[in-house]
């Protein structure tokens, strides 16, 4: 099968200020891809380009060989689900009703709410441990709970490709790993998952494909074993380290060095 989502010589800009350029990126199908890199390197911009939130100044973003901007919004929404970095819920909306909005791509003015919609929302609530909060107002929830509601809305959308921009940022450490396990399970069930992550060790443990960004360019791509080296971490992040196997998974783990050890 051909890889469904690709970029060809793409330049991304905001108000003619170039953020990333000469991007030639392929998202392998049915993989868990993590986009990593220092702050301001273009990670979120790359994800926005793949979701059509930001159109390229130059080059092509392709879905199934067809330019993304040629799709109707509902066509895209059935194929690509996006969890942006920040989201604002409508005032007074309840958890269930916000998650139910994930079913919008499958609805029409004449179509009634179906059993399949009910099942999708129930599954999304259960997967994110929100079932007991379904009747609560989103405004009443903690930051971590709200983030799980947005993730649940994305899950309810049931797209084959899921794009998530820093989904673990507002979660405590237990829920970070819970979410990553959930995303990995969806990937193992056949979905293509693409997410921006800051934690290199989480990226190496859960992703099977990494995209490393630096200064608006793709610095490296490949498996965690191929990409996550001490030289890369030093060159991209400015962090002296050693790479050691994760004692649980065997995947590469970044162990930072203190200044005295780095200079020794």
UniProtKB/TrEMBL annotation:
Cross-referenced InterPro entries: AAA+_ATPase, ABC_transporter-like_ATP-bd, ABC_transporter-like_CS, P-loop_NTPase, Siderophore_ABC-ATPase
Bilayer topology: Peripheral membrane protein
Top-level taxon in the UniProt lineage: Bacteria
Chief location bin: membrane
UniProt-listed GO biological process terms: iron ion transport
Database matches in Pfam families: ABC_tran (PF00005)
Location of this chain's protein in the cell: Cell membrane
Domain ABC transporter: 5-240
GO molecular function per UniProt: ATP binding; ATP hydrolysis activity
Name by which UniProt lists this protein: Iron-dicitrate transporter ATP-binding subunit
Source species of the chain: [Brevibacterium] flavum
Taxonomic lineage from the root: Bacteria, Bacillati, Actinomycetota, Actinomycetes, Mycobacteriales
């Amino acid at each position: 099968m051909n890889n469904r989502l690709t970029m060809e010589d793409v330049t991304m800009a905001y108000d003619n200020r170039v953020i990333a350029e000469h991007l030639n990126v392929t998202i392998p199908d049915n993989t868990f891809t993590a986009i990593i890199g220092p702050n301001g390197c273009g990670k979120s911009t790359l994800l926005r380009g793949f979701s059509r939130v930001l159109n390229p100044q130059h080059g092509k973003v392709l879905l199934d060989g067809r330019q993304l901007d040629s799709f109707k919004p509902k066509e895209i929404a059935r194929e690509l689900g996006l969890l942006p970095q920040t989201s604002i819920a409508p005032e007074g909306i309840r958890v269930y009703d916000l998650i139910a909005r994930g079913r919008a791509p499958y609805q029409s003015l004449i179509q009634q709410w179906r059993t399949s919609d009910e099942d999708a929302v129930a599954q999304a609530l259960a997967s994110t441990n929100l079932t007991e909060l379904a009747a609560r107002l989103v405004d009443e929830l903690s930051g971590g709970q709200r983030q799980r509601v947005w993730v649940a809305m994305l899950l309810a959308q049931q797209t084959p490709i899921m794009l998530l921009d820093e989904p673990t940022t507002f979660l405590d450490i237990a829920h970070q790993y819970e979410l990553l396990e959930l995303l990995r399970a969806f990937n193992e069930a056949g979905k293509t998952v693409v997410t921006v992550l800051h934690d290199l060790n989480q990226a190496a443990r859960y992703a099977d494909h990494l995209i490393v960004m630096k200064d608006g360019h793709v610095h490296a791509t490949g498996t965690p074993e191929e990409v996550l080296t001490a030289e890369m971490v030093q060159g991209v992040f400015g962090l002296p380290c050693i790479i050691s196997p994760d004692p649980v998974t065997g995947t590469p783990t970044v162990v930072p060095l203190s200044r005295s050890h780095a200079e020794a």
